[in-house]
Amino acid sequence: MQASHDHILTSHVGSLPRPDGLIAAHRAHETGEPIEQATFQRTLREAVAEVVRRQREIGIDVPGDGEFGKPMATRVQYGSWWRYSWGRLGGLDFPTAPSPFDTTPRRSRPGDVVLTSFADRRDRSRFAAAYLDPECGITTGPRPPAPVCVGPITYIGHGAIAADIANFKAAMQAAGIQEGFMSAVAPGSASRIANSYYKTEEELLYACADAMREEYQAIVDAGLILQLDDPAIAENWDMINPAPTVEEYRRFSMVRVEALNHAVRGLPEDRIRFHLCWGSWHGPHTTDIPMQDIVGVMLAVNAGAYSFEAGNVRHEHEWKVWHEVKLPDHRLILPGIVSHATNVVEHPELVAERILRFANLVGRERVIASTDCGLGGRIHPDIAWAKLAALVQGAALASKRLWASSQRSHPADLLPPPADARAGGGARG
């Protein structure tokens, strides 16, 4: 895995805006409309080539395939990072109506922590009027009924992952790119489905871990960086009603981390990065668990790098966690520097300041500037690409200050000068 040896590298979390033609092709594929497989594959292959070329053009150092192989049939959709696995796992049944996991509230008790329904999230309950107001700006996109596990979980996505890898590697070669990443859902998130087969939820979790391992192995064997998407590690906090103690939640989450570590056993850590977030839906997020309460859980994942939200207004202040928390040796961080949560495009100077905060605490070589979460399906494509351009521009500013100022003795010296000083003003009086 590349590190920022002579400049701050840039990357992103995964999802990028799909072209309309690809969205239409996925929609036809999902609904059974007539579309030749060769036509679908050509549309997908050309879209991946273009999105990789565009990332290269604006200067993203470690690009992805945009998650274009993960079906997204509408412009606004928040679940493709997870729901794609439904088509790659055997043992699932697909009801036409919402399952109990979607709709039936479940209450936790001390010593018995369980996930409630998506509709019973504490954030959603607290702001029910806002969530139900179609004009307020909160959207979660369409939510198809989640599947039910009715038999042994197996991996059946070999053809799909092989096509994803082939499309991405061909696009990388055409663009002259040496290193790229591909995302895959982690067991803790993949297992958030209804279960009528396994005796316990933990058995279902480990079945998902064993099955998804085949996808992880394929990505690493192809020479790509594997990104494990696991919002559940932070997001589940909002799905436990009433809220548990922090210690209960850590124990609950560590079971999922242990299953993930089981799934990646033997795979090289320096080819794996882990993504944590609090859910990318546009909502208040007042019930998000603080980073300081779960950073230790995140660092228990056997990965060479950690991606997390750090650019939105609910979590930007949490860069201070790294004053107290020591990043393990030979590990990197990919903090979110631009956010999916706002249509405002971050100024490159702000991007640089955010990068410098982390570089001053963990070391410049250990920071890769990234996004809070996926940009595709969350914000307008033009805004998404403008944010990535701002990320690259801000990283260039930060790099100039970090590497040109390496002999300076105090981290504060690396911060940009006050606005009046940049404008030519000086001390007054």
Average the pLDDT over all residues and give the rounded result: 91
| Number of helical elements | 16
Biggest β-sheet strands, sense, barrel: 7 strands, parallel
For the termini, the CA-CA separation is 52 Å
Query: Unreliable runs, pLDDT <50, ≥5 residues?
Result: 407-415, 417-429
Would you tell me which CATH topology applies? TIM Barrel
Count of extended strands: 10
Radius of gyration: 21 Å
Q: How many structural units, i.e. domains?
A: 1
| Proportion in helices | 40-55%
Q: What pattern of helices and strands is seen along the backbone?
A: EHHHEHHHEHEHEHEHHEHEHEHEHH
- Beta-strand content estimate: 5-15%
Q: At the first level of CATH, what is the class?
A: Alpha Beta
The geometry reads as globular
CATH-scheme architecture: Alpha-Beta Barrel
Based on secondary structure, the structural category is alpha/beta
Order of neighbouring strands in the sheet with most strands: 1-10-9-8-7-6-4
Set out the fold topology.
Blueprint: E1 9-10, H1 20-31, H2 37-58, H3 80-83, E2 89-93, H4 100-103, H5 122-126, H6 128-131, E3 148-155, H7 158-175, E4 181-185, H8 187-190, E5 194-195, H9 201-221, E6 225-229, H10 232-235, H11 246-263, E7 272-276, H12 291-299, E8 305-308, H13 321-324, E9 332-338, H14 348-362, E10 368-371, H15 381-404, H16 419-422
Parallel strand pairs: 1-10, 3-5, 4-6, 6-7, 7-8, 8-9, 9-10
Antiparallel strand pairs: 2-3
How would you portray this structure in words?
It is globular and about 60 Å long. It starts with 8 loop residues before the first strand and ends in a 7-residue tail after the last helix. Helix 13 (321-324) links the parallel strand 8 (305-308) and strand 9. The chain contains 16 helices and ten strands. It has 429 residues and is α/β, with parallel strands linked by helices. Helix 1 runs antiparallel to helix 2 (37-58) and helix 9 (201-221) packs across helix 11.
